[in-house]
UniProtKB/TrEMBL annotation:
InterPro entries listed in its UniProt record: Sce7725-like (IPR047727)
Domain of life according to the entry: Bacteria
Species of origin: Pedobacter ginsengisoli
Protein name in UniProt: Sce7725 family protein
Length: 312
């Protein structure tokens, strides 16, 4: 099973909604979503679309970033509300970074009945009260027990409940898009090959975005398109970065997209890649159209999720 970790930004939600047409496989794909805006309507829309194909979403109730940081009750109330409307494909998911997070999980999950109805955890740090945490988890209805790769050895020990999941961040984020010119092709991940052998039921990553949270953005000097693919020799997942050539200033983003897209089309044709996203890239290329940088990010996300779904 694969749990793509997304944040509730517009194009990340659109990627999930558009992949419903693939369709996503509800035995393989279980997205994790960290909401970042107090307005949750777009997440409700995505949940309704995912429910139609039986996809369950792990919704973070105590986000680490954005407008909802420190205001988890908004998300808890949202979950109760949409469940009352029949949208029941959402699993309350807690991030555990500190003993305060454990106390919040214990009190709210108990009060709202999640210990019996089901929940998931994302462990990003080892906490001092881990013995009590494991005792609670091992005697309740946890679904996914997601452990960051940094703590995989210490934290995977002692948990007996839930689907043990490995969370990693293989995207090698550069400071500037133009910095990818020196690393246009690199290793990304081989988790899909080994997670079962290493006694994990599932694996998770931050796709081609990375775990770093960046609010907003500005026009880049260079346009970069990131695309994962299977390396023919090793069978591992690698990532190729397609970078524009005219990177001297902020001007002519559509022209720079065209330069990067020329390189991407040459590559996917040679590799025989035909995901939904690759076909949309071919369409933009044939029409000489520029859909905007948000759409480029969306297509990169869609391609990665479809690639993993077809591999596992």
């Amino acid at each position: 099973m694969y749990l793509p970790y997304l944040r509730g930004k517009q194009y990340e939600l659109l990627a999930l909604r558009e992949l419903c047409a693939l369709p996503l496989d509800n035995t393989k794909i279980f997205p994790i979503l960290e909401p970042i805006k107090t307005t949750l309507k777009s997440i409700e829309t995505a949940l309704v679309a995912l429910k139609r194909i039986g996809i369950q979403m792990q919704l973070i109730v105590n986000p680490e970033h954005g407008e909802l940081k420190g205001n988890g009750n908004v998300v808890l109330d949202f979950i109760d509300h949409i469940r009352s409307l029949g949208v029941d494909n959402v699993i309350p998911t807690y991030m555990i970074l500190s003993d305060r997070d454990f106390a919040y999980f214990e009190s709210t999950a108990t009060a709202r009945g999640y210990l019996e109805s089901g929940y998931s955890l994302v462990h990003l740090n080892q906490i001092s009260n881990v013995t009590a945490l494991k005792a609670l988890v091992n005697n309740s209805a946890i679904r996914f027990n997601i452990i960051h790769v940094t703590h995989q050895m210490s934290l995977k020990r002692g948990f007996t409940n839930g689907e043990l999941t490995l969370l990693s961040d293989p995207f090698n984020k550069q400071k500037r898009n133009s910095d990818y010119i020196s690393v246009t092709d690199e290793f990304f991940s081989n988790d899909y090959l080994y997670y079962a052998d290493e006694k994990f039921a599932a694996f998770s990553d931050y796709l081609t975005i990375g775990s770093e949270f960046i609010e907003g953005g500005m026009l880049p000097y260079a346009v970069a398109i990131h695309l994962t693919y299977v390396h023919k020799d090793s069978g591992e997942i690698w990532i190729r970065h397609f970078i524009s050539d005219s990177n001297e200033d902020y001007s002519d983003t559509p022209g720079k997209f065209g330069e990067a897209l020329d390189k991407l089309i040459e590559f996917i044709d040679a590799e025989g890649l035909h995901t939904m996203a690759c076909e949309q890239f071919r369409d933009y290329h044939s029409r000489g159209a520029f859909p905007g940088l948000g759409v480029v990010k969306k297509l990169s996300i869609m391609h990665h999720i479809q690639l993993i779904q077809e591999l596992i």
